[in-house]
Amino acid sequence: SLYVSEYFSQSAQKLSFYSWYGNAKLFHFRVPEDTVLLRWLLQASRGKGPECTNMEITVHFRYGAPPVINPLSTRFPANATVRPSYNISITLSSAVQNTTFVNVTTPAAGDWFIAAHLPEAAGRIEVKGFSTPCPYMFQADMFVLRLADMPVLEPGAVTTQTVASPAKPLHVKVFVPKHAAGLRLELRNCLTSEQKACAVRVVLGSITLPQSFQRIITCTGNVTCSLTLDSPPWEKWLQIMVESLSAANASVSVEMLASFTACRPGSTSSFLNFSSLNQSQTGARPGSAGAVGSSAVSTGEAWRNASSPRSSCLQSQPVVREDLDVVSVRYRLLNGPSVPVNSLSPTVLLLSLNTGMDSGGSLVVSLLLNKTSVNLANATVVACVSAASPVLSLNATWNCSTAFFQGYPLSVSTSSAEAMLIVLYPQTDDWFLSLQLVCPRGQGECNAAEAKVTVFAYLTPCFNDCGPYGQCSLLRRHGYLYAGCSCKAGWGGWSCTDDTKAQSVGAQNLATLLLTLSNLMFLPAIAVAVYRYYLVEASVYTYTMFFSTFYHACDQPGIAVMCIMDYDTLQYCDFLGSVVSIWVTILCMSRVKKILKYVLFILGTLLIAMSLQLDRRGVWNMMGPCLFALVIMIAAWVYHGVKRKHCYPSSWKRWVFYLLPGITLAFIAISVYAFMETNENYYYTHSIWHVLVASSVAFLLPPRDKHKKPWAWSQKLTCRYQICQNDREELYAVT
C-alpha cells in the first residue's frame, strides 16, 4: 500500500487563566479522508523570568465541534446535553518547554478541535504596566498518515483481501448510501499463507473524541463471522480495519462481503412541498380563483399519492433551513409547525448543520404535543436527536442510538406535553429528529392513532442570549467563528444560569451606590478650587465627577445599570477626566506663571487624549503626565526657593496640615488602585480610590494669590446702587 504523510501547523497562542470560554485558546484542524494515523505534537513553553512558576496546562480534544468544557465545575442550563471532553494535562515545572505526543489510530475525517487553557483565574485586577505576567505559550501541530490507494468494498460483491502481516493491518472502506437502514459485514474463508486457520480482529468505524463507538469483532477459524450495524452514517465512507492475530509472520487472506438493508422513505410529493413553500412565501393572489382551485385539487391528489406509513420505514417531513446571521439558523417546516406522528414508522426531520460554520453555537429543539390530537391517554411520543443518520427503531427498543452515535432522547405525553433539548456546540453533520408514537401495551394498541407535535428547531450563538447576567460574545480563530457567554454579577455557568456565587439585588444596588456616590467627594475639592479662584481646575474636577459617576452607573454587571450615552464614550471621558485632574492639580501646585500654566494645561490635555486613544489602560498614560508634572513642580519650587533664599513652601503649617496629608492620601490611593483591587472587592476598593483621590486634591491645592481678595458675596449683592451712583458722578464730572 502507498502511504502519504502530511503535516499541518498553526501559530502558537499565548495562554490565559480560565474564567470563561473566551480564555481557552482554540485550534481548528481538518483531517483528510483515508487517514489511518493521526499524531498531535503539543508544545508548551513559558518565560524565563522570576515571575514564571510551575504551571499545569489543560488540553481538550473533540471531533466535529469545539470541546464543551467546565473547568470551574459550574452548572449547565436545564435540558442541556453535556458530555465530558477528552483532555490531558501538561505540566511545566523545572523545564522551560514541554513536548507531548498524542496518537489516534483510524481517526474520523473532518473537523478536529483542540482547546488549551491555564487553571482558574485568581480574580485580581492588574494594572497594565505595574506587573509583568509570565507568558505561557502553546502550539499544536498535526501529522497524518494517509492511505493513498485504500481498497473499496462494492456492496453485494465478494472481494478477497490480504493482510500482509500482523504489523501491517488491512484498511478498506465502503460507502454508505442514503436511506441505508442497516449494514451487514461478512468475513469468509479466512486462511493464512500456510493454509492454516487464521484469527483476525475486525474494527468497523473511526475514532471520534470524546466518545468513540467503534465496533470490534474477532473471527477465528475457517468459519463465517458477521457483524450487523443499525442506522450506519449516511453518505459517508466507513473505514474497516482487519488485523491479523496470528503469532507467525504470515500473510492472511479473507473474503469480505458488505450488504445494505434499504429503507424506503415515505413523504408527501415534491409538488406538495413546492406548493406549500410557494404559498408560505408569496401567498395566494387575489382574483385568481382558477389557480386556487387547481392548487387545492393538486394538493388533495398529492396527499392521496403520498406513501403509506405501512409501506415505508420512515416518514420524511420537508424542512427549510433559513440562515439568519452568523451561527444563527432557523428551521421551518413546509407543512406547518405541527407534524403527524404514528406508531408504524418514525417521522424524520432533517436539520442540516454541515456548512462547517454551524458547530460554534447551540442547537435548540423544542417539542409541544397537541393533547387533543391523541385519543390514547397513555400514549407517548418518543423522539431522538442524532447526527449522521436517524434512529429508525424507536418503537421497539426506545434506544436513542445509531451505529456510531449516541443520540439525545426526548419524550412528550398528555401528562408532560412539552420537552426541550439544547445541544451545545453540535458537531458538523446532518442532524435528524426522529419521532414515533409508542403505547405501553404494545404497538397493536395504537396502530390507528396519530399525534400532532409542534416542532421548533433553531441554531443560536448563545442559548437565551446568556440571560440578564451575561453577554454573548462572538469569538474567532482564523476564519472559524464560535460564541461564548461572559457572565457578571457573580453568575456563572455555560449560559450564565448558575447562581451559586451570584450577587443579590441588594448587593448590586449597594455596589452601584458606592461607586457612583463616592464621586461626590469631589464636591469639597470643587468648593476649595472655586473659593481660591482656581476656576479652570474646578471645571476639570466637575467634569471628572460627572463622567466618573455615570460611567460607573453604566459599568455595573447586574441589573442596577443606567447609561446616559454610549459605554465606550463614558469610559473614555472618565479616564480622560481622571488623568487631566491629576495633571492640572500638580501644575497648579507648581505656581508657575499663568500664561505658562494654561499653555501646559491645554497642551497636556491634548497629549493625554491622544495617549488614551492609543492605549486606554496603560499605566504610563497616568504615570507619564504625573511624573512630568512633578518634574515641573519640583523645578518651580527649587526656583522659588533659590530666588527667596529659603525653603518653598516656606510655611511649616502648609507642610504639616496640607501637603503631607494630601501626599499621604495620594500614595494610599495609588496603592489601593494598583495592588488591592480584585473582582470581588472592586466595588468598595475602587470607591475608596475615589474618596482618597478627591480628598487629596482638596488638601494639595495651593492657597489663592495674595493680590486677590476673597469672595465677598454679601458686599457684591448690596453694592448695585453704589456702583450706579459712582458712574453718574463720574459722567457728570466729565460733562
TrEMBL record:
Q: What is its main location?
A: membrane
Query: Which PROSITE patterns does the annotation name?
Result: EGF_1, EGF_2, EGF_3
* S-S bridge residues: C462-C472, C487-C496
Can you tell which superkingdom this protein's organism belongs to? Eukaryota
Q: Which PANTHER family match?
A: FIVE-SPAN TRANSMEMBRANE PROTEIN M83, POST-GPI ATTACHMENT TO PROTEINS FACTOR 6
Question: What range(s) does the EGF-like domain occupy?
Answer: 458-497
Instruction: Give the subcellular location.
Output: Cell membrane
Q: Which GO terms describe its cellular component?
A: plasma membrane
Transmembrane regions: 510-534, 595-614, 620-639, 655-676, 682-701
- Provide the membrane topology annotation: Multi-pass membrane protein
Keyword tags: Cell membrane, Disulfide bond, EGF-like domain, Membrane, Transmembrane, Transmembrane helix
Q: Which residue stretches, if any, does this entry annotate as coiled coil? A: none
- Recorded protein name is TMM8A factor
The organism named in the record is: Heliornis fulica
Name the family the entry cites.
Answer: Belongs to the TMEM8 family.
